[in-house]
Each structure stands twice: as C-alpha cells, then as structure tokens.
Amino acid sequence: MTAEPSTERPELSVVIPMFNEQEVLPLLAERLRPVLDGLTDHYEVVCVDDGSSDLTPALLHKLSREWTQVRVIRLRANAGHQAAISAGLARARGDYVVTIDADLQDPPEVIAEMLQAARRDEVDVVYGVRSDRSTDSVFKRTTARMFYSFIRRISGTTAQSDAGDFRLMSRATVEAINSLPDTNRVLRFVVPALGFPSATVTYRREERAAGTSKYPFLKMLTLSIDSVTGFSLFPLRLATYLGLIGGVLMFVASIVLVVASRTPGTTIPGWTSTVVIVAGVGAVQLFCLGLLGEYVGRMYTHLQGRPAYFIASDSGAD
C-alpha cells in the first residue's frame, strides 16, 4: 500500500531528463529511491520525458503509481537534453534542486553528500566533479578538458573541467536560471556564470548502466558551439584579429612576390600573387561570415521568442 503524496512544499526536488531510457529506468528507481527515502520525508522526483519513442512513457506512468513522489512531465516533442532540464527546473518546487541524468554514470548516492555540503557550507550550488573518468575514452577526456579550459579563457567563467549536469542548486539559484531569457541555455556554463557561492563533491564516474548514449559526436559539437557563442564575444573579436593577421600576411607575401618576380624564370607573372591573395582573403572572409552567422542566428532565434520546449502533461500540475 503506497503512501499519499504530501501537500507540503518538498525540501528536495530531483530533476531527471529522459529520452528513450526504458532499459535503465528500473535500475535508476531501484538505486534512487532508498537514497531519497533516507534523506527527507518531503521530496519529489521530476522525470522529464523528452519525447521518448520507446516504452519510457509507459514505464514512467507505472512508476508514478508505485512511487507517489514521482512526478512525470512529458514534452510534446524531443527538445534536447538542456531544454528538458530547463523544463524540469521551471516546474520543480523543492527548496533544493538536484539535476542528474538517468544513465547512472553519476551515482545517486552522492546526492546525500551534496545536500550535506550545501547546508554545512551555506552555499547555493554544489557541483558534482568527476575525480575518476577512466570509464570515458581518452579522446573524450582530453577534448573535454581542452574545451573547458578554452571556455574559461574566453568567457571568464569558473566552470569545472570535470563537472557536467550533476549538481545541487538552491531555490534562489533555480529562480535566477528560470528568469533568464535565453532559450538555448547550456546549464553547465550558465550556473557558474551566475557567480553564486558554491562547493564541490567528487565521485567516480561509472559505466552507463544500460541503453546507449544520447550524446553522439554531432550533438556534442552543437552543444560546444552553443556554449561558445552563448558565453563569449571572443569569436567576433577573433574575426577582427584574423582580418588583421590576414592583412599582415598579405603584406609580407606581397613583398616576397615582388622580390621573386625580379628573378627571371622563378614565377609565372601574376599567377602566384593572384592565388595567394584570393585564397587568403577568401578564407578569412568565409570564416568571419560563419562566425557572424552564428551570432545572427542566435539573435534571430531570440527575437522569434519560441519556447525551447512545449509541455504536453504534468502529473503534478495540480
């Protein structure tokens, strides 16, 4: 016999974005429920179904009947990982909110340590930092560290290199995020950019418990582009720098070509200079136009005012 859901405001909300997670969902519930039951009497688990096409919606419906603290939010279509988390944050009601993926690579047991750190240190954010990423490929670990270092340099944010979307946030932090107008949020950089007091807890990143990764290379590349264009003007300035460097190189090339043209038989008159100048200037122009296009695209999307997601149903709306 299941207990009736509490009408009190939950002390803790756990937001879990899900997309085609039918294999891992039972394992997640089996590990997460004992952790939360041991932490507080008043909590909610906000499962955001990001337009799954497998049995995830049916399993979530069944789980919510067996586990009354589970709240199911269904999106009308697949909106993406970051949008699904944003949807969960907008609906979460807890004094503290934890975001965690469903794949169990980030262990739910660390939530207790996060909550303890937030109360002990009186901070608004507690980041889960992976002290051991041996389960990830060398390529993924290396590129991730390089990218985070690059983002920190060009944007001035303090994003942790080995921190993803596993974090605990206070109510004030969640409300600050929900008030932001940006619809293409990359939360792993948005949260540090707020500058709220924070702490970290470390853990070993585990293998995915079941199913397949929902972040292939192309999605990671898209996330990287959104991160760069969303947090820094460096690419726009880079276009200016490249233009200046290109101008200097063309000046040097011109001098070299003039000198070479005075030596009979070394060059075909006009050919070298034309190719070098056209290729150099064309490459710089195309690169700069591409960077400008990224920013213009973001402005266009923002002016359209389209929501990042559409809610189909919320089992806890009442």
UniProtKB/TrEMBL annotation:
<comment type="similarity">
    <text>Belongs to the glycosyltransferase 2 family.</text>
</comment>
<protein>
    <submittedName>
        <fullName>Glycosyltransferase family 2 protein</fullName>
    </submittedName>
</protein>
<dbReference type="InterPro" id="IPR050256">
    <property type="entry name" value="Glycosyltransferase_2"/>
</dbReference>
<dbReference type="GO" id="GO:0005886">
    <property type="term" value="C:plasma membrane"/>
</dbReference>
<dbReference type="GO" id="GO:0016757">
    <property type="term" value="F:glycosyltransferase activity"/>
</dbReference>
<feature type="transmembrane region" description="Helical">
    <location>
        <begin position="271"/>
        <end position="292"/>
    </location>
</feature>
<dbReference type="InterPro" id="IPR029044">
    <property type="entry name" value="Nucleotide-diphossugar_trans"/>
</dbReference>
<dbReference type="InterPro" id="IPR001173">
    <property type="entry name" value="Glyco_trans_2-like"/>
</dbReference>
<keyword id="KW-0328">Glycosyltransferase</keyword>
<keyword id="KW-1133">Transmembrane helix</keyword>
<feature type="domain" description="Glycosyltransferase 2-like">
    <location>
        <begin position="13"/>
        <end position="174"/>
    </location>
</feature>
<keyword id="KW-0808">Transferase</keyword>
<feature type="transmembrane region" description="Helical">
    <location>
        <begin position="238"/>
        <end position="259"/>
    </location>
</feature>
<keyword id="KW-0472">Membrane</keyword>
<keyword id="KW-0812">Transmembrane</keyword>
<dbReference type="Pfam" id="PF00535">
    <property type="entry name" value="Glycos_transf_2"/>
</dbReference>
